[in-house]
Each structure stands twice: as C-alpha cells, then as structure tokens.
C-alpha cells in the first residue's frame, strides 16, 4: 500500500509577495541613495471602481515605501491640460493616468500627452515603439533605459526570479529554447508580453478568442527582433502540450485553462483577477505555480519611477551601485536576490 505522501503534488506555489519583497529591497536601496522622496502624480478622471481601487492601492504602496503620491481628479474634458501642467512642473517626477477615460483612440492620444520623461507606465509611443522593435535604451550611449509597461515587466521579473531565464546564454537571448503560451492578446498586457518574451529568445504562442499567433525571432533567433505570424487552424489545445511556460490573463470567471493538456512540469502564471487555473488540478501537472502577480506589478511601478529619475541623472556620478559587468548604469534595482546576478545582465529590462 502506498502512503498518502506518495500522492502529494510536487508543485511549488510561489507567492508574488516573495518576488515583490526582493524587488522592494532593491528599490529601497536606490531610494536611500537618492536622498529624497520622488513625487508620483495620479490622474483619475472616471467613475470606474477598479480605477479608484488601483489609485488607492498606488497611494498606499507609495506611502508605505517612502514615495510621495498625489491623486488629482479633474473633469475628463480638462485632463489633457492638467497632464500638461504636470509635465511642466519640475516637482513632479512621474505621472500615471487611470484608464479608461474616454476609451478608444482618444485614450491612446492621452497616453502620448504624458511627457516621455515622466511616463511611469511606459505607454507613450516612444516606449511602445522601442518595446516592439527590441530597442532597450533611449540614447546611443545606452545609459538611459527604456520604460516597460508594469504588468508585462512584472511577469518578466517573475520569470527571472524563477530562473526560467538561462544565465549561461548571452543577455537578450536567455529565453532561447523555451516555448511559452500567453493566453491574452490585449494591447495593454498580452501582446506586449508576447513581444518581450520573444525578443528575449522564446517561441511564444499568443492565444486569443480569434486565433493563435506565433511570436519569435526566427530559427536560431537570428533576427534582431520578433515577428508575429498567424498559425492557421491552431487553438489553445495545440499550444499547451508544447509549452514549458503557460501564462494566462483572461478576464471573467468562466474561463479555465484545460490543465489536462499541460506539459508535465510546466511553469504556470496567472495574471488575471480571476483564477484561470483550477487550483488543485494545476498542482498535479505544474512544477511551479504563481497564482497572482499584483504585488509584483505595483513594485514595478515604483521601479519605473526610480528608473525615470535615474535617466535624468540623479542616480549617476557614483551614486548608482556598479557591478563587475560591462553594463553601464547597473544598480541594485537590477540584482536578483537569489543568485546576486544583475537582472540587467539577462534582459536589460
């Protein structure tokens, strides 16, 4: 007779709190070197309860960790002018707008009103262009790093923490050999995430309700940036058995990943507010399961704010902790608690 211990799943459940803590330690180190509290200004111009909750969450996290936060609530018709005022105000270090405001293309326009030097969400055209084109710096000297959207960045940092990135490969190629399925192709999270992972060398299957697209840098990752191609006739069921990492962010409580199709030992990450993976069943197939990422996402917002300050030069001239690599501007923000390697070495993110 086998004991009950023989039937216990070997899946490791990883809390976003642990990942956030390692990033917060790094944020605190660089904040102390800055010698002041950066000011983040949030603009709330809608009646969406989710936006209000996110604004309250931002305030609480900022205040708990030594940052200043001001919430400004203009009428949506006056939002553009208020953003411009904050752009010109030297006391404002970063700006976040809680969308949706008008919805559609006008919100996209407003994303580009925010000054590139204060856009902590990385939603402006300059940052989005760089992200898709696999351009990792704003300047030719490669000292000013481009800002990435917070949720995709948080997932990248989670994969680094889990050591999915192969540190023995050249930076920028350290997901080579991995096949990843991303279930969600929104313009805010899913598509940017697929692009980031493919630019780091993975073969990514991007799945939404319409089709499956393959994001990759081609055979042997010889191309400098990813390309996307539709996989005719493919569905999620074709992707899951091939994937050693599955990342899901489908809104709505009805969707569940068919875990019976998961590759044995897959890494599973949920970034939806709902539970896309059945909790018990996924632990029978996955080697690692991250059920939520929210706390890591908000820390990436603070990290982006400090990076913007760093890009202005306030954390240079010796105040940034250097490492033994040849990457200029590597700070404690970029170090992994587990292996003491700089995160920038793996992705330059």
Structural commentary:
By secondary structure, the protein is of the alpha/beta class. The chain contains eleven helices and eleven strands. Helix 1 runs parallel beside helix 10, helix 6 packs across helix 7 and helix 6 (150-161) crosses helix 10 (294-311).
Unreliable segments of 5+ consecutive residues:
317-347
**Number of contiguous helices:** 11
Please count the beta strands (DSSP E, at least 2 residues each): 11
Average pLDDT over all residues: 88
Spatially, the strands of the biggest sheet line up as 1-11-10-9-5-6-7-8
Helix content: 25-40%
Terminus-to-terminus distance: 51 Å
Per the principal axes of the C-alpha atoms, what is the gross shape? globular
- SS strand fraction: 5-15%
Q: Order of SSEs, N→C?
A: EHEHEHEHHHEHEEEHEEHEHH
Q: Give me the Rg, rounded.
A: 20 Å
Class inferred from helices and paired strands = alpha/beta
The largest pleated sheet is described as: 8 strands, mixed
SSE layout and pairings?
Layout (H helix, E strand, L loop, with lengths): L11 E2 L2 H19 L4 E6 L4 H16 L3 E5 L6 H10 L5 E5 L5 H8 L13 H9 L16 H12 L17 E5 L6 H10 L3 E5 L4 E5 L10 E4 L5 H4 L5 E4 L18 E4 L8 H7 L2 E3 L3 H18 L31 H5 L2
Parallel strand pairs: 1-11, 2-3, 2-4, 5-6, 5-9, 9-10, 10-11
Antiparallel strand pairs: 6-7, 7-8
How is this structure best summarized?
The protein is of the alpha/beta class and 349 residues long.
